[in-house]
Structure formats: structure tokens, C-alpha cells
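The data layer described in this paper is built around a simple, fixed record for each protein. Such a record has a labelled line for the sequence and another for the C-alpha cells. For reference, a complete record is included directly beneath this paragraph.
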Amino acid sequence: MPPETARRAKILFLNYPNNPTGAVASLDFLRRAVGFCRRHGILLVHDLAYAEMTYDGYVAPSVLQVEGARECSLEFYSLSKPYNMTGWRIAFCAGNAAAVSALAKVKSSLDSSQFGAIQAAGVAALKTTPPDFLPSMNRMYSSRRNLMCDGLNRLGLECRRPLGTFYLWPSVPAGQTSVGFAERLLTGAGVVLSPGSAFGGYGEGYVRIALTVPEDRLRVALDRMAKAV
């Protein structure tokens, strides 16, 4: 980051495991990010929504594991992904006390808190979910990941197996744009993908695939894609 940009920056936002790419971060990476933010007086905000959706032995680190992180960091955790509460908008944050207090003031001015029944459901999810639920769910997503990655690579769409999230980030065929490829699959194969460019300029050349349907539907998608790629 150029020195002038670092001097003017107020917040550094990180999201690992990452949506849309599935990329993950090491504790050493977060340690360096904390050091950078402390040196430049920047608030580090880490979105840890996919903390518990990891595979192949990888464990997603929390930025709050880093010594000194509480001086400059906020970390957000969502119940949406690990407890299948997507769209319920229930989450919490922890970290620097002054930043948490400031966030609470802003939040209280935006609404009068989340609907009480959803809060109660979140408490129930945290207190009563069987201990084998998350490992079982991760095995399911890991199996879907392997199925799709193998199939996409056979089609010539390079796709690495991510260590976290339920997203894949395959490349599009040479000479095609993200939007063009997504439109081609939508109109020619009836398969819906998210063009990478929708997530910013650096997403050009990729598409995002969500592993949120059963394996039989994923196989249907691969069969349709094979006829259109």
C-alpha cells in the first residue's frame, strides 16, 4: 500500500475464509495485518462469517488470537452460514471496546435491534446444536466441493479445492469474459453462476459457484455445462 494511502486510510476490511473466492488466511498473515494497522492507526475489521466452514484439517484463525489485536481490531461472526440461518441477519462482533461502543451507537440509530424471535433462534442455535452437526455439515460440503472441482477441471475450467466457505471460484475459458460466460451458461444450459466481475474488477476471468444444492443437482449442472462449454 502506498504510504499516502496508508496515512489516509481509516479501515482495513478483511474477509477470510473469503467470499467469493474461498481463499483462506494464516495466523501469520493476520499477525502482519494487525502490525500494519497498529503502525498506521487503522481499524482492522475482519469478517469471520465462514469461521466454522473449513475442510481438510484447516482451522480458520481469529484475528483476536494475535497479540495486540484488541487495540485496533473488530471481528464479526455470523450465525447465517454455520447454522443455516442465511438471510436472518443475526451476528455479533468482538474486539476493541471503543470500536464496539461506536458500532452500537450507529446500530441503535439505524434500527431498534433484530426481531426478537430471530435473536431467540440464534441463542438456541448456539446452545442446543448437537456437537456433531457442524462436522457433519462440513463433510457434506467437502463432498460437494470435491465433486464439482473434479467435474469443472475435467471441463477445462481450472478450479482449486478451497479450504473454506461453500463457494468455488473457477476460471472462465480463455477469450471469454465473466459476464459473457455466465450468460452463455444461463441461456444455453440453464445453469446460474455469478460472474466474478460482479464482485469487482479483480474478479474478471472467474465465476462463483455456490455448493448449496444436493449432489444430484450438481451432477445435473455439470452435465448441462459439458454440453455448453
About this structure: The first helix runs from residue 3 to 8. The chain has seven helices and seven strands. The two ends are 39 Å apart (CA to CA). The first strand starts at residue 11 and ends at 15.
